[in-house]
């Protein structure tokens, strides 16, 4: 039995309570609060001190579920120390609540595990910093809506006034104020006497108490209070705390609340309800289609940026204009375009080139990604999405400096995003297979698991709720109670509890939409490859396979939530992603090797095309429409583009004949031959540039055309025109006039214009911004626990004075001995295999205490097994301040 459970050995401090824990319990503490292990504490006293710091306590409170946080808030208004029965009464009330009684031991165990509560069940103590954060005060009312105790509220009152209140309340007078206040508190806490007192109260006075009972407990009165207020003031049911301000004492409020610290306790998490159910095979097929669309969208995005994408803004990121252009090119809304751009960036497929004229482009990893099977390419995208902290949903919003947040720019990281994504998918995995969740119930569950941020606002002014007259509240009792749950607290820079639009709720909504676009879910339900992606087990109940009568039918009953899948390590996540890819691969459509040519100069691809076919068709024709079937249109410009890429008319005819399930239409054959016949008839080179043609009539036509005025053409010879513009501009100008010129080299050969695939230098994907220190693995936890135990042994082991010179007697003081005594004691310890205590100062001047078992002493060094570090180390003798033997 631990000291926390044994009244005979009750701990006197948090450090003693931690000292009574076993290694498993200490490891659980460090796992749940990883900030305590960075760096590893030297001993348990330092661990307890660190666990009580404000930043660490706030971080721990923010990660409690709603019921556990309510338990901590109840302890903050209970006596210090409190008994388990008192805590249960505050949580369940006088009438009791079986659900609260069943859930409270687990909540208290969580508070104990995280070192927020210590002591036995008869002496429960909330860590002092947590009590300061959660306890009520005039500046910071309690989240429970309770005010100060009678003793705290009457601290500034005169003894005579206290005796008057006691007498008016019907209590015998006492000799001192302390006993008078205790008698008054006893009256308010006694149900029978309190009921008798309230039976005498005017109905208007009772209405005032009802307005204040659920908080805020402060109100304002005039110098001459109304009779309904005077009756309450004379009996101590309202006590003055400042001129013109009164408060409802905690004992009175608790009695009026029937002992409850909260208006509503939530011991059981709200269930995630299923809004609709679909056959699992339909879910998987829909998700697979979305997954293929995701791959095609990323390919289309980066293909559009093959020759170098948009320029990088000076402050970083894409401009609004470039994002709009990208959205038009992908045929999606701008927020969706921002998501695809950020996804490619997170997966390492897109980056800036780092040049002076910095632009975005595909990375070399993109070419490697293209060669992978479709399932593996999808797995890389979703793995990057799960771990990314960059949140495209905030693109277009403004930061703290009122600057617009841009896609691929700074300021998009939200460290809670990975945890929310994993949790949302885990809750979906808890539903029956094929079930889509009700969005509001999902958000309610997330808000229960992680209530809005509990960070007390600064400033010393009284709460604005204290400026209300009790007789005339600013809002009804229901609204006041709702506001009183967290008065004086702020969430993400906004006052109040955050409501529907807090960050975690927005992240959850974005997760549902993004999972659907990526094919992790289908029709809102988690797919089989989505389950594998997060390591969730397959559904165990066969009834989950039953098909509903319609795709939108409501499920008739609540379903028990399956256990949440564990948070995976990077290696486990890679294994899970590979398993998900194997499940997805058979569901993806097989690429086709043919198209259907039509007489209206279009080609229809009835499905996804093989990459060589799609690449060639993308050069020879323009995409006219997308969807389940892609429509390509052949134009003179598109055919000329294929000829510029080095293809001949014969090559194009052979290509179309080989890949069309229908005969090549005659109009398309005529178009290819007509463009090919004129292609290269004109030759453009560098003079600045020139045009040459064997047919001088064509050159005469060009010179006579008014559209050629801007090209600065002049005749050099019957078959040659010179121009002031560069060859590229001359090519574009002549093509705009309806000609089909071809570029030529200095040797007179036709240049083949191939689209250059511009790539950035090798780039690493953006590193996620962690939400605090990472959770340590089991190996690190075991080593940390050993180090803390050894350090604690070194700091608490009894010492014995050496050689007539006392070792340090003050706690934490290093032993001090002469050099001769130090050497002699260490040499003797080598011979006797004893363990000794030394003081050591390292090269940086940091002092520490160590318990060592010397192995040898030679050459000015001592080699010893260091129990503190749990390893063999060598120490210079001149850095040892002193040595002392350990007591038996």
Automatic annotation (TrEMBL):
Entries under InterPro entries matching the protein: WYL_dom, XPB/Ssl2_N
Domain WYL, residue spans: 822-883
Domain Helicase XPB/Ssl2 N-terminal intervals: 595-717
Biased composition range(s): Low complexity: 474-485
Annotated region described as Disordered, given as residue ranges: 453-501, 535-566, 794-816
Top-level taxonomic group: Bacteria
One Pfam family linked to the record: Helicase_C_3
Protein name in UniProt: DNA-binding protein
